[in-house]
Amino acid sequence: MAEKIERRLRENPHTPLVSFIISLTLFVLLVAICALRGFGGMEATWVFNCGADVLGVAICTVILFSIYRDKRNSGIVVQLFVSILAANSIALFLDALCWLVQGIPSMRALNMIVNVLYYCNSLVIVFLFWRYVDTTLGTDGIFSKWCGRILSFLLLPALIMCFVNLFYPVYFLVDELGNYKRSGTYVFSMLYLAIAVIAIILCLIASNAPRRQKAIAASFITIPLLNQILTGAFFGISTQYAAALVSVVLIYGVLFTDRGKTLAATESELNMAASIQLHMLPSIFPPFPERDDFDIYASMNPAKEVGGDFYDFFLIDDDHLGLVMADVSGKGVPAALFMMASKILIQNYALLGMSPKEVLESANDRICSNNREEMFVTVWFGSLDLRTGVLTCANAGHEYPVLKNPDGSFELIKDKHGFVIGGLGGVKYREYELNLKPGSKLFLYTDGLPEATDSAGELFGTDRMLEALKQVENGEPQAILEGVDSVVNRFVGEAPQFDDLTMLCLEYRGKGDVNDV
Amino acid sequence: MTINKQLNGTALTVALEGRLDTTTSPQLEDELKSSLPGLTKLTFDFSKLEYISSAGLRVLLGAHKTMLKQGEMTVTNVNEIVKEVFEVTGFSDILNIE
Description:
The structure holds 2 protein chains of 2 kinds. By secondary structure, chain A is α+β, with helices and mostly antiparallel strands. Chain A contains 13 helices and 12 strands. In chain A, a hairpin with a 6-residue loop joins strand 8 and strand 9. The radius of gyration of chain A is 35 Å and the shape is elongated. By secondary structure, chain B is α/β, with parallel strands linked by helices. Chain B has helices at about 25-35, 55-70, 80-90, 90-95, and strands at about 1-10, 10-20, 40-50, 70-75. In chain B, helix 1 links the parallel strand 2 (about 10-20) and strand 3. The model of chain B has no long low-confidence stretch (mean pLDDT about 90). Chains A and B meet through loops of A and helix 2, helix 3 and helix 4 of B.
């Protein structure tokens, strides 16, 4: 049965939410009961207990809420911790109830039931804590393994004994005046706890975990133990679960701030990576101020700190300009790494003077030979002959380019698509030609643009993109990009940026062929 | 995204409902990893698939390559959006689409 509890925990992703709701409900219930009943007829120490319990449940609820909210929290350790916290909250609630019904003859039955539940919950929390220590500091020690087996095996019988107490005062009884009293054999209720404490101590001794972690885990025993030593002799003070809560909060503080430190380090590394990536893309405009036969502008806005989109342009020789627009599958660090490799490969093959078809085929074969993660990249590559305006291009699974000729408007060029690069080795690509005239403008982009989503889930689409382009088509490349960018931002509104947004615009000014496309 | 699997001997049909993107593709990847060994026929039913991103394409490509060695893979019931993604990326020439 113990294994069933744990398996249920492991497989249920909603434990943080459920635990939070349970704790919140108990808090509201407890406050309501206290308000309705008042504290008449209660000893001062009992009221003190209730107060501490109410505060305790509130603290559990708040911590559970913050764990639930952080979606990063998952895994069996968090599940166990959250369950302990929920059980602790239940213990505090039951403890308060015990005092609220103490000494009231008409509440005898409720007194008995609440106390039985309290005992049962105590067993469960002890078992959960053993599982927590075993999972986080686990060892292969023979003693701790056997203790673990005994604890799992004994859980059900121990719970049954609690229920037996409803009929026969094994551990305690509630007399005619409604007073809870421990019975002669009360001490046997501590048996399970004693075994668990031994097991946990053995586990802590044998474990190789850092001393700090062990000390924090041990506090779950030492703090309540200290509390018991100080207050155990007095009937009327039952603050052991409030004491346990102190330890739980300690564990929470350590568990979740350690994560915070690692996170901060990763963040600063990511920022550096973003900077490296940004500076790898040509970003100085105008890039070739001495040339007046073309103008170019490009921008890349990653969805995360680093992205998988890239553009590139470079002079292959005095008369040829290479243009690249590409999109790596995925986002973030993996895509960024793949992007760096792809960009360098494509540029190198292009600078060797290969035709666009050959550039893509060579890059594809190279990437496929080293591609265990099976990522791929969509690429559009073009080589513009600056003397004639002939743009030779090839498309490997990338979005359709958009072309505006001086006497027309922006139109989608539905070129033939080869397969994405990095997908399969040996793929062949097809070249085609576009004839640019002086004043022609070419617009390249990645799917982050047509697939930009607003908060209603609607996509921006290529139609809106063409409309936006037509609004600004008489401007310079930079003005065109800025215009499109502001239209997209207005459309997306408050919704988070889902994909990298990358655009490039080229205006050809030089001498071109008079013939039409 | 919900994944519905139906196994008939060594033929598996996988129906997806929702979006296959960066957040949901690891889920599909895990499911396929455990289900693919020993299969001779894999069919994807995309009638309830709203959208697919490059992360989803990557998982499909992986499945396609695996099934090339063991049998065959087919993609059925794609909607307009998904169909266009397949065409633009060239996947429509590589995958078996019905």
